[in-house]
# Entry
Amino acid sequence: MNVCHATDENRMRAPTGGARVRAFSLIEILVVAGLLSVIILGLVAMFGQTQRAFRTGLAQTDVLESGRLVSDLLRRELVLVTPSGLPNVANFYAEIPPPFVYQPLLQDLPGGEQRTNVLMDLFFLTRENRRWNAVGYRVGSPDAGGGVLYRYAATNLAPEELRAQLLAFLKAPLTNLNRVADGVVHFRVRAFDTNGVWIREDLPNDPNHIRSDIRLSGVVPGEVGLYLFKSNAIPAAVEVELGVVERRTWERAASIPDPAARREFLTQQAGRTHLFRQWVKLPLVDPSAYWDWETR
# Structure
């Protein structure tokens, strides 16, 4: 009996010296580490795409907000354009700078096509009661393919001061103008007559440019290079196109000091350029300036 009892105690007693404890092998650890790396890389890629989409949406929101604000500002001011009725006074002026100053920016599009961007100077007169105002818009550094849109304003003008306003606008330094929008690569204005036809030649019976001086562009084929309406003439309607690049793209372009290199960079940014187009009817047009319009 004593022997059996001792044997049972020996069986119940756990082994001490030669016991083997199971653990993960090196191969198993490497497999787990590899799986964790794949999971982490997937999460990082997902978070990166989410952040990129957020930045893209934020950039588009900034551009849309800026473009709409400028478009609304232009609309509110253009509907107030008023003919002065004075000889040799510029009521409305829009011009593509001459070739020795400016060349249009060509942006590459899918399919091998190109979009032609132009930067025009815009000037017009408005009237409030008996006082006149002169308003102008100009893009700085057009030789670099794009720049900042500036606004010129002269208020409370007497009629005898109107004749000098166009020249004052053209010669005004940018430091005296108000900054409106950054990253403008396209600013084009087209004028239309009372029949809604795009004006591409002088008004009728105006061989001496008494009421208008309209010339086709030598820089951009097919475009009007100069609109100059005088006396009682202004357009019956205008179409304004505004092209703005995204903020981050413009900040990168603005950091390029060489105008030629900046232009080359902007030619590749068609996908980051947003266009705004609007039609503005000018209610104060004088229809007598368009009588006897010749067949075109």
Observations:
- The mean pLDDT is 85.
- The chain is about 30% helix and 30% strand.
- Residues 26-78 form the longest helix (53 residues).
